[in-house]
Write a structure and sequence with these properties.
Length: 349
């Protein structure tokens, strides 16, 4: 069997936020254009929505807004088009397969936190992921998981604050509102120092879409932030915490009209969450990064309900990447594609 390449391209940018954005846009111009056409078909209605979201984004976190301005100029695209790419999850909210775990304190062998996930997405997006290193003036250094125009899909910064996430709000499907795009939120969060600062930012932000964010910092804090359009609810992790693609807090279930304690009928989210939790509980107090890799490679469960599904490549989705963060060490470990076939590679901030 011929495997897809295991190594990610790494792009590095240094300077002011606008200069970094301009360099990123110029280097990624062709990829941004193709990604925009491939994923989002920028018609007049979508661009009007993006323009309304840009009015909020422009006055949100200044380094993020400046980066977008620079990227638009560098790529030769409009601000509305760059914002539309950041609204990818609001526009294209149809791949409910990611599974994530957070562990900290008494759950891990050394008491330090770890968060990880399988990033499952449309199979035609497999070739597009990369890593980005940002050294923006006045901002913490960042190591980011990226797609064209989505420079901060997930990541970790020099303070050890890390963010990854899974999609939710699928069934019943929640309609997005005018707000800060989901794919812009990690860029703002990773300007912060710790989970407390990140939570304060998210609580003061009007989010456009739905998500389950995992936050972890070098002090040992791990949180899950469940979001539906315009609202969030945060749950602190005491030892282990898992999510797939449904809500688990009472408030979010009520707001989304999802039954508490169960995923929507026919949904494969619940088996993956239960399996991930069972794996972590089995190793409670002993979890290391090697255990995280073992969990993310697990193939038990029903069809389409596996944490790692080697058969899914024939479907419309695929494990594009698998990764986890070690906040205390300021490290990201990432494996390409179906992670049972690829080794995890270490990257330090």
């Amino acid at each position: 069997m011929t495997l897809m390449p295991s190594v990610h391209a790494i792009h590095s940018y240094r300077g002011t936020p606008r200069a970094c954005g301009h360099a990123y846009g110029a280097e990624q111009a062709e990829a941004i254009e193709i990604f925009l056409r491939l994923k989002l078909a920028p018609d007049a209605k979508r661009l009007r929505y993006a323009a309304r979201c840009w009015t909020l984004l422009a006055n949100w976190q200044a380094p993020v807004a400046e980066f977008v301005r620079g990227a638009a100029t560098g790529a030769g695209r409009s601000l509305e088009e760059l914002t539309l790419i950041l609204l990818n999850d609001e526009m294209f909210h149809a791949s409910p397969h990611c599974t994530a775990l957070g562990a900290t304190r008494r759950a891990t062998r050394d008491g330090t936190p770890i968060i990880g996930e399988n990033w499952d997405w449309s199979s035609n997006l497999y070739p597009w992921s990369s890593l980005t290193r940002l050294h923006m003036r006045g901002a913490p250094r960042q190591l980011l998981y990226s797609f064209p125009g989505l420079w901060a899909a997930a990541g970790i910064n020099e303070h050890g604050l890390a963010l990854l996430w899974t999609g939710t709000g699928y069934a019943p499907r929640l309609r997005p509102i005018v707000g800060i795009p989901t794919y812009a939120l990690p860029a703002g969060v990773l300007l912060q120092r710790n989970c407390a600062d990140a939570l304060a930012l998210l609580r003061g932000t009007r989010n456009a879409g739905s998500f389950n964010f995992f936050l972890a910092d070098a002090d040992g804090d791990v949180w899950v932030v469940e979001g539906c359009p315009g609202k969030i609810e945060a749950e602190r992790c005491e030892d282990i915490i898992t999510r797939a693609n449904h809500y688990e807090t009472e408030r979010m279930c009520r707001l989304s009209k999802q039954a508490l304690g169960e995923a929507p009928p026919g949904f494969v989210s619940l088996p993956r969450t239960q399996r991930m939790r069972a794996l972590a509980q089995k190793h409670l107090g002993r979890i290391t990064r090697k255990h995280m890799e073992q969990f993310l490679r697990d193939t038990a469960g029903p069809p389409d309900g596996r944490i790692c599904d080697p058969a899914c490549i024939r479907n419309s989705w695929i494990p594009v990447d698998s990764f986890y963060f070690l906040p205390a060490a300021r490290e990201m470990w990432i494996a390409r594609g179906i992670q049972s076939r690829h080794a995890y590679a270490r990257h330090a901030v």
